[in-house]
Amino acid sequence: GERIPPKLRGAFNQIAKKDDLKRLTTRRTRDVLDRALNSIASIYRDVAVLQNNAEDSVGLINLENRSAITELSVRLNRAGAVARLDEVAHARKRLAGNGNPLLVFESLFCALIP
């Protein structure tokens, strides 16, 4: 490619820094949203573990929320727990396809209501 004229290098570098900052912000936002989805999925994973009496073999991830997870495992049937895990996976796909994070999470939270 052609060289950037010395007079324009400063402006070019400013634009490049803004692009880098935008990419970094997007990456961090996606990481935070992915961690949130992992946390939600881990709750329903624990519900499925309790429903299948598999706690002794695989253990629970969210021990600090054991009582709430136990209550949820009684309120939901097995198909309900699996359906909610599927909803989390669907939300993850929407985010990967550049879905609006606010709308994706609102839709997910509506789908998670027992």
Brief synopsis:
The chain is mostly helical and 114 residues long. The chain has helices spanning 6-51, 55-58, 66-75, 78-96, 101-112.
What does this structure look like?
With 114 residues, the protein is mainly α. It has one domain (6-112). Helices cover 80% and strands 0% of the residues. The protein is built from five helices and no strands. The chain has helices spanning 6-51, 55-58, 66-75, 78-96, 101-112. Helix 1 packs antiparallel against helix 4 (78-96) and helix 4 packs antiparallel against helix 5. The chain is elongated and about 70 Å long. The model has no long low-confidence stretch (mean pLDDT 92).
Present the secondary structure layout.
Layout (H helix, E strand, L loop, with lengths): L5 H46 L3 H4 L7 H10 L2 H19 L4 H12 L2
Shape: elongated
Q: How many β strands by DSSP?
A: 0
What separation lies between the terminal Cα atoms?
59 Å
Oligomer: single chain
**Which ranges are low-confidence, i.e. pLDDT below 50, for 5 or more consecutive residues?**
none
* Number of structurally distinct domains: 1
Strand content: under 5%
Sketch the major β-sheet: none
Mean pLDDT over all positions: 92
Radius of gyration: 21 Å
The number of helical runs is 5
SS content category:
mainly alpha
What is the helical fraction, as a range of percent? Answer: over 70%
Question: Helix-strand pattern, N to C?
Answer: HHHHH
